[in-house]
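User: Reviewer 2 asked us to show a designed sequence for the structure in our supplementary figure. I'm pasting the structure tokens here. Could you produce the per-position amino acids so we can include them in the response letter?
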């Protein structure tokens, strides 16, 4: 089976910054219509957005950053071939979104890892296409717990909440097996059905809706309150 392994090996637990998100987009474009196995080195799929970068962005730079975030998550979610997330480390906030954007999500049976969407706890709003992806992938009955609860969870609880599809003692082997299982289907039928289910970027949110969201939300993302919360998180990590 021809496939591409996209393994994040970026600073700060594979934090999603301009460099790493651009790299993910480039790797997905390189994959073309081949299956993708997404994983992360260093004890995390990704621990979320690069808060060091977020903390120094002015309104104009934040606009570009959030547009890149939308392109990155949308490209993964709409990739025409099977995609599997191998979660053998933390997948938090943007890292959890990366996992949710994949067709199948395999988490390691490791009590140390945490998975969840804690954006509300940081004081920020989900961009519209990213939120559409998460809403589609998390069972509706768990929306309050996952989105508004803003917690991070051990793998068994993440499985109960629908953030992952399986918990495995051998996460790499189980993730690879899932990718092979999905990739065994006729490629054209898989791609067409996936498109029928998900549409395109505009089906997630129109360009006008994205522009309106950015105009309304960039002041929130660059507000003193959010900057203070980001600084507090960074202080705890030192």
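Assistant: Here is a per-position design you can include in the supplement:
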């Amino acid at each position: 089976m021809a496939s591409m392994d996209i393994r994040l090996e970026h600073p700060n637990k594979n934090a999603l910054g301009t460099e790493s998100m651009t790299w993910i987009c480039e790797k997905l474009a390189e994959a073309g219509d081949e299956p993708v196995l997404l994983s992360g080195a260093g004890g995390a799929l990704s621990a979320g957005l690069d808060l060091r970068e977020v903390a120094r962005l002015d309104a104009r730079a934040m606009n570009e950053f959030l547009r890149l975030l939308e392109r990155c998550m949308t490209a993964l979610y709409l990739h025409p071939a099977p995609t599997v997330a191998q979660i053998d480390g933390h997948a938090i906030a943007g890292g959890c979104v990366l996992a949710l954007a994949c067709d199948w999500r395999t988490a390691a049976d490791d009590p140390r890892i945490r998975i969840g969407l804690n954006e509300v706890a940081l004081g920020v709003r989900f961009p519209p296409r990213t939120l559409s992806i998460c809403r589609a992938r998390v069972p509706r009955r768990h929306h309050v717990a996952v989105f508004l609860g803003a917690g991070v969870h051990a793998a068994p609880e993440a499985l109960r909440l629908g953030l992952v599809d399986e918990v495995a003692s051998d996460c790499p082997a189980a993730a690879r097996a899932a990718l092979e299982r999905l990739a065994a289907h006729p490629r054209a039928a898989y791609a067409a059905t996936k498109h029928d289910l998900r549409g395109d970027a505009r089906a997630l949110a129109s360009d006008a809706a994205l522009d309106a969201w950015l105009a309304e939300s960039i002041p929130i993302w660059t507000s003193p309150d959010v900057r203070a919360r980001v600084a507090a998180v960074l202080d705890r990590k030192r």
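For the response letter, you might also mention the following. The chain is about 55% helix and 15% strand. The two ends are 43 Å apart (CA to CA).
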